[in-house]
Amino acid sequence: MDRIKRTEEKFGVLFGGKPTQNEGNDPEFMRILQRFIFGEVCYVGSLNDRMRELITVTVLTVNQTLPQLTAHVGACLNVGLSPLEVRETVYQCAPFIGFPKTLNAISAMNEAFMQRGITLPLESAETVSEETRLENGLKAQTEIYGDEIKKRYAWLPNGFDESVPQWLTELCFGDFMTRRGLDKKTRELLTVVMLAALGGAEVQVRSHAAGAIKAGNTKEEVVCALAHAMPYMGVPRLFNALNCIKDVIS
């Protein structure tokens, strides 16, 4: 099957329609985009459409490309992902991109949900309380990363040497990693993509690539996730990510 046929097939699965022929004001650009993403990239590597769409939603959330995010939330539903899985993918971006950008993405996501007649708010996915978020977050963190963060920032001024690592534990791992809807393996792989899409977070990309493998992802899946993210985040960020994880995956 050539890439034009593959584009038609994948576009139909994801969006329930046909790719661009000569419609619109920029049909040439759209043909390049669609044939590359849906006719080439989507067919390389082991990840299925469900995982690829969660990767896409992650990058679009990081980059705040909200019209495209709304469209791909619809694609997520078309390939069988639950609203809860999609929501958790967006929610877990908050510690990395900040709460305001995540709120923007939530608004775009909810627009797609409402278009499908999905009742909001969705069911709760919380598993921790005010009393257990530190304990449960620490457990989730140490299973993959040990206590390296606390040791690494012991040089901070008094007060911050305790608070900064604790914020990481409670927020990233307690409030988000422990939530229902996505398993740890999926969350870790999406975190690698999220950090790569951010740019300038190569130290964290390397650390989380190792963490993603420890959580059960294969080296090929890590590379496939980054490769699939490339059309949405750009070639330089793909190469930066691959270069910094070379010793992890080689």
What does the model show?
Helices cover 71% and strands 0% of the residues. The chain has 250 residues and is mostly helical. It has three domains: 1-43, no CATH class; 49-118 and 183-249, AhpD-like (Up-down Bundle); 133-175, no CATH class.
The main sheet comes to: none
Beta-strand percentage range: under 5%
Radius of gyration: 19 Å
Helix count from the secondary structure assignment: 15
- Could you say what the CATH architecture of the largest domain is? Up-down Bundle
Query: Spans with pLDDT under 50 lasting ≥5 residues?
Result: none
Helix share, percent: over 70%
Q: Write out the CATH superfamily name of the largest domain.
A: AhpD-like
